[in-house]
Amino acid sequence: MKTADAATIAGGVPGIDLMEAAGRAVADAARGMCPVPCTVAVVCGPGNNGGDGFVGARLLAEWGYPVRLMLLGSRAALRGDAAVAAKRWAGEAERFDAGTLKGCGLIVDALFGAGLTRDLDGEAKAAVERINASDCPVLAVDVPSGVDGDSGRVRGVAVKATKTVTFFRYKPGHLLLPGRMLCGERVLAQIGIPDAVLPEIGSRSFHNVPALWRAGYPEPSLESHKYTRGHALVAAGSEMAGAARLASRASLRAGAGVVTVAASTEMLPIFKAALEAVIVRAMDDLDDYAHLLEDKRRNALLVGPGAGLGADTRDRVRMALGAGRPVVLDADALTSFETQPRAMHQAIAASDRPVVMTPHEGEFRRLFRQIAEGSDSKLEKARAAAALSGAVIVLKGADTVVASPDRRAAIADNGTPWLATAGSGDVLAGIVTGLLAQNMPGFEAACAAVWLHGEAGSSIGPGLISEDLPDALPGVLKRLLS
Ligand SMILES: NC(=O)C1=CN([C@@H]2O[C@H](COP(=O)(O)OP(=O)(O)OC[C@H]3O[C@@H](n4cnc5c(N)ncnc54)[C@H](OP(=O)(O)O)[C@@H]3O)[C@@H](O)[C@H]2O)[C@@H](O)CC1
Ligand SMILES: Nc1ncnc2c1ncn2[C@@H]1O[C@H](COP(=O)(O)OP(=O)(O)O)[C@@H](O)[C@H]1O
Ligand SMILES: [K+]
């Protein structure tokens, strides 16, 4: 945002104009929250976030709202645009104390935004605690004060907002937990920063929305046949047949033309009975898997769901990675390398095709312990793991991060807590595999799969079980592709 700001100002738009536009967006949002004028308490901090607050306060007062403005710090200490905005505010700047929020109908939190540099303590912490203790709705300017915009984490204490207005683009902290929850409803306001500044910023962080990958989404043409749409091979292993079934069905729904499930002979009847369109092949040992890999039409491989832990699964992972095809590693395929993660990274390094890993937080910690303990940012954790392993990392959860070894990373926010149900991750792994079978590049396939999985979950909602997810995909895809 500093670069965006500087480039916009260099392009001829004065900084105070940006602040005026930001303040206006805040005032508009406040008016939306309280259409009938109520007393608004605007709590301003010592930097430009406070400057936005001064502008918002002035406009609300012009519109007939009784406004009380409180300032943390002294008016004389304000600098730059914030000092200009404060000059344009004709009213008082009160000290913020226990009594000042009494009788207010709305609080505007303009304490700290992008300039938060350390944990809140002392007077700033007390101010946030007072805001949170009041039962007023809270409108946060840019980010709820105390939330780190880069990581979404709380620096000591943070405002719990009802609504947050931010500018130009969302920041990671608006999408990552707990920041996203503390934002309440999010509003994105355009304040005059042109998109032309984006190349200069060169951000590698994205919101996982279809614009990021839609252009490369595979669609069949009149000339397509099932083999041109790709052939996914799901190694089922000997445990939990349901996991591989869910993944296989999801691969088909994601558009793979053919899906083969490889399972032990004793498990075959279960698969044959449950999956009509899926080809079922016996795999009782590693030779059987090697034999299945000989057919090069099987062009995307999934190992993990229901695979079982141990040497057999590790061997299958090595064989898959050595087979010159895109590979998805999930669940037991990940945990089986808990004591020898480097062996997995080496096998990945030897593959020149995309590899996608889909760990939840627990699996991630097992594989990337140092990274998990060394950073507070889910975004940077996923990025570091992608760089270390050479795989696209899908670090799952309500704020799933997809990170590529080339440092691109995308954060999703379209899922639903109803996805927290057994087997849901197996479906996700199956969707990724189905998209890789259709030659979607690794990062894009993983982003698209996470988005589709989230949409499918959200379209079902309460009562969702994982079996529902593959069958919700046609509706989601119809909306996406039309
Ligand atoms: N960029 C843009 O395009 C636009 C940006 N705009 C707005 O500017 C905001 C960013 O403004 P900003 O950079 O002045 O930082 P801001 O968030 O006000 O905080 C800095 C002040 O807080 C202080 N401080 C920090 N941490 C602290 C702590 N823990 N406890 C106590 N104090 C602490 C810090 O003090 P210092 O570290 O210097 O001691 C400094 O005084 C941005 O969020 C948006 O709202 C818009 O106007 C539109 C255009
Ligand atoms: N609270 C939540 N909000 C949104 N999505 C969630 C939430 N909890 C879990 N999920 C998603 O559900 C899936 C669960 O996967 P996983 O933990 O591997 O489950 P399983 O092993 O049972 O299949 C992941 O895609 C994850 O992102
Ligand atoms: K704020």
TrEMBL record:
Binds 1 potassium ion per subunit. The keyword NAD applies. AMP binds at residues 396-400, 425. InterPro entries: Carbohydrate_kinase_pred_CS (IPR017953), CARKD (IPR000631), Nnr (IPR030677), Ribokinase-like (IPR029056), YjeF_N_dom (IPR004443), YjeF_N_dom_sf (IPR036652). K(+) binds at residues 49, 109, 145. Its cofactor is K(+); Mg(2+). Keywords: ATP-binding, Isomerase, Lyase, Metal-binding, Multifunctional enzyme, NAD, NADP, Nucleotide-binding, Potassium. Residues 209-480 form the YjeF C-terminal domain. It catalyses: (6R)-NADHX = (6S)-NADHX; (6R)-NADPHX = (6S)-NADPHX; (6S)-NADPHX + ADP = AMP + phosphate + NADPH + H(+); (6S)-NADHX + ADP = AMP + phosphate + NADH + H(+). Its EC number is 4.2.1.136, 5.1.99.6. It comes from the Bacteria. (6S)-NADPHX binds at residues 48-52, 113-119, 142, 243, 306, 360, 426. CDD domains: YXKO-related. Residues 1-199 form the YjeF N-terminal domain. PANTHER family: ATP-DEPENDENT (S)-NAD(P)H-HYDRATE DEHYDRATASE (PTHR12592:SF0), ATP-DEPENDENT (S)-NAD(P)H-HYDRATE DEHYDRATASE FAMILY MEMBER (PTHR12592). Homotetramer. Bifunctional enzyme that catalyzes the epimerization of the S- and R-forms of NAD(P)HX and the dehydration of the S-form of NAD(P)HX at the expense of ADP, which is converted to AMP. This allows the repair of both epimers of NAD(P)HX, a damaged form of NAD(P)H that is a result of enzymatic or heat-dependent hydration. Belongs to the NnrD/CARKD family. Belongs to the NnrE/AIBP family. NCBIfam families: yjeF_cterm (TIGR00196), yjeF_nterm (TIGR00197). This is Bifunctional NAD(P)H-hydrate repair enzyme. It comes from Flaviflagellibacter deserti. The gene is nnrD.
